[in-house]
Amino acid sequence: MAPKGGKKDDDLAQQEVLQAVVLADSFASHFRPMTFQMPKVLMPLGSVPMIEYTLEFLAAGGVQEIYIFCCAHADEVERYIVESDMERRLATVSLHVLKSQGECMSAGDALREVEARGVIKSDFVLVPGDVIANLSLAPLIAAHKARREVDRDAVLTTVMARVPASHRARRGGEEKLVALSGETGRLLMYDEAVKEGWATKVRLPMALLQETDRFELHRDLYDTHIDVCTPELLVLLQDNFDWQDLRRDLLPGVLGQFEMLGKTIYTHVLSTEYAARVHDPHTYDVVSRDLLQRWAFPLVPDANLLPGCSYRCTAHCVYQEAGVSLARSAAIVRDSAIGEGTTIGERTVVEGSVVGRDCVVGVGVTLSGCYLWGGVIVEDGATLTGCICGEGVRIGLLAKCSAGTGLTLLGPGGHGRLWKVVPTAASLGFDRPVAQGQCDDELSEEEDEELEETNLEDVENEQFATAVRELIRDALRSADKDDAVENLALELNGLKFGADRTFADSVRAIVPPLLAEAASAPTKKAKVANLKRALEKWAPLLKKFVQSKADQRALVEGVAAACEQANEGLLEVFDHALKLLYDREDDLLDEQAILKWAAAVEEEAEEGSLEERLLQQADGLLKWLRESDDEEEDDDDE
Amino acid sequence: MRKQTISKKTSGVGCEYVGQSGTLGRLAHCTPIVATAMPAPSSNPLADLPPNVQQEISKLLAKLRRRQLLNSLDVARKTLEIMRLLVATSAAAQATDVNSLIKLIKRAGAVMVTAQPHELVIGNMVRRVLAIVRDETRDGGNKPFKAGDAAAASGGDAASGGEQTVHVAGPSLMSLLDAPEALDYSRQSLKALKGPIIEGIAEVMEELSTVSAHIAEQAIQHIHANEVVLTHGRDPTVEAFLKAAAKKRNFDVIVAETAPGGEGQQMAVALAEAGISTTLIADAAVFAVMARVNKVIVGAHGVMANGGLIAAAGSHLLALAAQHFSVPVVACAGLYKLTPLFPSGPDSFNMLLSPQPMLRYDEGLQGVHVPNPAFDYVPPELVALLITNSGPSHTSYIYRLLAEYYHPEDQDLSEVHG
């Protein structure tokens, strides 16, 4: 008996275990402020946290080992995995949570850390923790392996779905041109649209024509972000430590440096299966609808992935749990899910919405395309369109909240607060989105056109700002050294050239992280003192970057941004910061720059917006400046 | 007009939030919430069961959820295996008397049924096992052979059908007016009963393995030479039934394609390969050909307590067309599909599939609602005959079969009596 058992073990060892890596962090900020408090992957989608769908998809596809890599909120993700008994429920996989130990700012960093842990033994599936898909992995893996037989240098197979650019799933502004080899499906070009669609010309690399006799140019491919990777890819990422984003850096990197690296990428185009990713509020809306309309079958609300869920599907894709109290005249029209313990009042209409557990929806309420997570109270007569309401939000009597075609995020917490829009007395709504430029970091709301226009610039700015932030954070640790300013200036300059930024761009990016530390002080007085110290130390650095009037203006904007980013801890000392800069003897900042900024902001600022509050805060300073320079005021403040 | 005033009415509650919204910074300092929108993740409904049973149940549920186990015979077999494991390892869950065993079985059954409500055979098998437990307890584990098993063992031997009814155990017509037997299950020790119970489960498994054969045996009594038979979908029982008849008789089969899944197409190919003269028609042509048809034979996903069928979508239409032309509808289903529940409402025990086969996702037709139900409910009055592995019976006779195989106390698995 013994030798037989031994042989069996050998067989098992030889049998390849299919591994998967789930990135439980999207390294983006589309879901702020929700993601300040909870990891994105635990946000409920349909009826359960979205990571449930991802893991279920992998398990159904025959993956046996899943590594969940967490950065932000790692403990909460781990706790959820353990407490929800995930491994037992998935039944066929072993789950491992990898918590990031270093500073992990991007998917590239995450994979480098995964590589460092040495857990990956063979080809593996890589997905973000927000992918909803029902494709079967087996043929995909088989095709990948078959290609590897032919082409040893194939490091990656990306999965794309054919979705026309006009489809609602793509409306979020995902525009890209993809070129594939007609014969093999090799990826030859992956070009994300620049700012305003493509210019009149698209540049096709010559290699395209040399590599293959026939190539296909696609505008209708939707990137599902499901990848089948080889261990070589991890090595490649290790070597190219500056690759951060898998799409923006890795794909162009591998494709562009084919001559040098000699690695190839292939694309698997889905025919009938469903695969989508939730990366921003718009796609949250789209994917939720798709789930409710059963496109991702068998991933549907009534699959009841969580124990204790009891969703049943009735006609018109209306899902109800047991213990829902529905008034006689209430109408759940279609594509909606209602959780246990929820009460819905008379004459209320619910359409295309998910109402979580223990919500109270009053009389005559209209919910359309809304996602109420749990314990939400909607009082009588409210009309909500396209909203995501966090845990325990309360919507007032006759409230109206709509976001056109986009989605509004209502902040979680005991009482509803609109993110970014300060609710003044008796008003908690807006019918216009916050202009994109004013809140490029934390998108509170999206409106299609504006988003498409500014998306890429935002992304680039964001990337640059992230890099600057990291540099400065490192520099602050060794701030005591004499040459700290010089060194940092040198490095920042390098970065500025690398990213092709102007001085003004740099100043805007530099100021917030420099001032961020001051925000942590408990009192206003301490904050001012901190500010003073920080500015004294770093003013020479700023001086190097502030070269012109425009840069001075950028400096003011930078300070404003700092006040915005530090959770507004710096708001109350905004004027002090400006004053400190103004008072410096090296002419770092003159009154014209401040007044021009104020004039520009005054025109655009909405009532109750952050800019408005900044203006109020700086009111005294502005008055004083104007008085001291009468003529200028006439010119500027028209 | 950039902003809209929303709280038009001032009321204590309605305005509560507005004054509170001091600084936005507060948001980040709120007490952290952890995904409580979902049910408490720690609640494991299987916690009372032995760990290996928990694991097996999770595996079965995962397979069903992922649609990797579609044949209801396999589901029934797997459920029985779990039940057998549960009985065998019940000591690990501190079940020493029959009552606690019944509770355990019901708990396991309730969890599985809640998770997969449309997989009717799970509940059926759990109830069968419960009936076995109750029978064995009543008989003290020493009665060697009982009527329920007798019917199962003698299977589709239609000739002995008359004899079976004499043997009927449980609440038969004869005992209807007697006082209900009051058995205190909690006083019965499990030790001596375990063996007979497991034996009983093994007998049901044996029955399952012969279901198709027993039903197919009866084929020649129902299909006559040169008849035209209409069927749809791809039910393995019906397929075996037709193939068995084809060994002795010459007849024509018309298969409706069963869009959008196209199971009828596969069925037509399979029948043609077996040498049966087969015609494939569109579902829309069913009414047109019905006048030529002598018999409609359909499979069932479940046979309900009132004799109605839960069958592949399109069956109802088929049955109505048949009724119009006075063509008899014959349903073939194993006894394991006998469900002691009554259908309530049009959506009970139904399931919507993906709209994908009907409309591609990338077609971009937004706003179109595309329901794709898996099943139909066929009311009992449309079904002329039900052929099970214990012989043919009329749908109005179902209640007798139910009494034979199930115990009335087990109807509701979520309730635990005494």
From TrEMBL, chain A:
Residues 458-635 form the W2 domain. It comes from the Eukaryota. PROSITE patterns: W2. SUPFAM superfamilies: ARM repeat, Nucleotide-diphospho-sugar transferases. The lineage of its organism: Eukaryota, Haptista, Haptophyta, Prymnesiophyceae, Prymnesiales. This is Translation initiation factor eIF2B subunit epsilon. Pfam families: LbH_EIF2B (PF25084), NTP_transferase (PF00483), W2 (PF02020). Coiled coil: none annotated. Belongs to the eIF-2B gamma/epsilon subunits family. It comes from Chrysochromulina tobinii.
From TrEMBL, chain B:
InterPro entries: eIF2B_beta_subunit, IF-2B-related, IF_2B-like_C, NagB/RpiA_transferase-like. GO terms for molecular function: guanyl-nucleotide exchange factor activity; translation initiation factor activity. SUPFAM superfamilies: NagB/RpiA/CoA transferase-like (SSF100950). Keywords: Cytoplasm, Initiation factor, Protein biosynthesis. It holds the Pfam family IF-2B. Residues 141-164 are annotated as: Disordered. GO terms for cellular component: cytosol; eukaryotic translation initiation factor 2B complex. Its main location: cytoplasm. Coiled coil: none annotated. Residues 147-162 have a biased composition (Low complexity). It is found in: Cytoplasm, Cytosol. Gene3D superfamilies: Translation initiation factor eif-2b, domain 2. Belongs to the eIF-2B alpha/beta/delta subunits family. PANTHER family: TRANSLATION INITIATION FACTOR EIF-2B SUBUNIT BETA (PTHR45859). Component of the translation initiation factor 2B (eIF2B) complex which is a heterodecamer of two sets of five different subunits: alpha, beta, gamma, delta and epsilon. Subunits alpha, beta and delta comprise a regulatory subcomplex and subunits epsilon and gamma comprise a catalytic subcomplex. Within the complex, the hexameric regulatory complex resides at the center, with the two heterodimeric catalytic subcomplexes bound on opposite sides. This is Translation initiation factor eIF2B subunit beta. The lineage of its organism: Eukaryota, Haptista, Haptophyta, Prymnesiophyceae, Prymnesiales.
